[in-house]
Amino acid sequence: MFPMHLSRRFIHCSSKNLKDYYKILGIAKNAAESDIKKAYYSLAKKYHPDVNKDKGAGEKFQELSEAYEVLSDAKKRRDYDQFGSAGASSFGAGGGGGGGSAGSRQWQYTTHRSPEDLFRDLFGDFDPFKGNRGAYAESAFGFDAAQQVNVKISFEEAARGCNKTLNVNVVDDCWKCQGNGVSPGYTKVSCPFCNGTGVTSQHVQGFFMQQTCNRCGGSGSFNKNPCMECEGHGRAVTRKTCDISIPAGVDDNQVLRTQLGKSVIYVLVNNIFTDVEISVAQALLGGTIKVPGILQDTIVRIPPGTSSHTQMCLKGKGIKRLNQAGYGDQYINIKIYVPKKLGEIEKRIALEWAKIEKNTPGTVEGKTETEAKTTENPKQGTEKTTSSGNDNKEGGDDNGGAGFIKKKLSKFF
């Protein structure tokens, strides 16, 4: 705990032992006020005597407080930059509340606030280490708890409702101290700062005032041995597996609110889709396909040259909206079905296609290097010739592979 007798400090610095407040806080000389406060908060937490038990932590904490108190005040900072900074070429009247004469060439700094009071005035009356992040500690799973989780469901799941299993970071009671914030084997003691009353008294300008004890928060008890797992907060980030119930009729991008541990998680339901498979021929030439729906099937036209994972939207063909009039949209995710095994005829057609294909990004199994070069770089004035008696053999057509494919396709399509 920071000694209470340091409530008033008068610090005198000569030109030989000036402190560089900017260096102490690790900031640039043109740092904004918000950057100064952020740097002070980060370092003060690190060197606060309640957390850091090193011998030099208290002195460092006091030094940080001094630097912040001067640099956070516009007038003190201006006087310090002019007369007291380590990089100044000359020194004049004392600044920052000092009282040096005009020719003293000295920097003086006076304050009536203890480092502890300064820190608590800035970051809270009770626990300065909670700040804006909430009363829980970082753990092996990180510091931040999940705020929103994206869940992908199918069209059928959205129509009928479903359960989804999620693994998320949530804030929950500390597993080690069971939520009381005290190390196992210890208990809280009567607060030594308010003698267990929960209030402190002070005499200010002839008035006797009482206020809530800023060490125990008015509880009258003090955690002398905080749990090392949750830093005395009683709560920490943990990993949980939980089931989320998705109601029937949920729409795309709808947000569901659920309670997980001590956290409130918002589940964003998106990408409600129906997977539809089409053949290679349909992808190349186009066609139609029947898509199952809630009330009836829909015939959808597939344009030529459709790629896999193309998404289409059927307006008004989706699920009836929850608590709203009308129906939502149905999204289709196109997938091209490629057969794992080819018959002899399909394989020959595919090889002939490979011979005339000009944009193959690599090689094709069964297509020889000679065929590839001949196809890609045909010489002008030359023609493919076939031996006599082979006119009826496959591949001997006057039009080459294209004629062969046309003949074969005419039989099957």
From TrEMBL:
Molecular function GO labels: ATP binding; heat shock protein binding; unfolded protein binding; zinc ion binding
Biased composition (Polar residues): 377-388
Keyword Nucleotidyltransferase belongs to the record: no
Residue span(s) of domain J: 20-84
Coiled coil ranges: none
GO cellular component, one term: mitochondrion
Domain CR-type: 161-239
UniProt-listed GO biological process terms: mitochondrion organization; negative regulation of apoptotic process; protein folding; response to heat
Domain of life of the native organism: Eukaryota
Keywords attached to this entry: Chaperone, Metal-binding, Repeat, Zinc, Zinc-finger
Region (Disordered): 362-413
CDD domains reported for this sequence: DnaJ (cd06257), DnaJ_C (cd10747), DnaJ_zf (cd10719)
SMART domains: DnaJ (SM00271)
Species of origin: Ditylenchus destructor
Record-linked HAMAP family: DnaJ (MF_01152)
Membrane-spanning residues: none
Zinc finger boundaries on the chain: CR-type: 161-239
Ranges of Basic and acidic residues composition bias in the record: 366-376
Stated name of the protein: DnaJ domain-containing protein
Cross-referenced SUPFAM superfamilies: Chaperone J-domain, DnaJ/Hsp40 cysteine-rich domain, HSP40/DnaJ peptide-binding domain
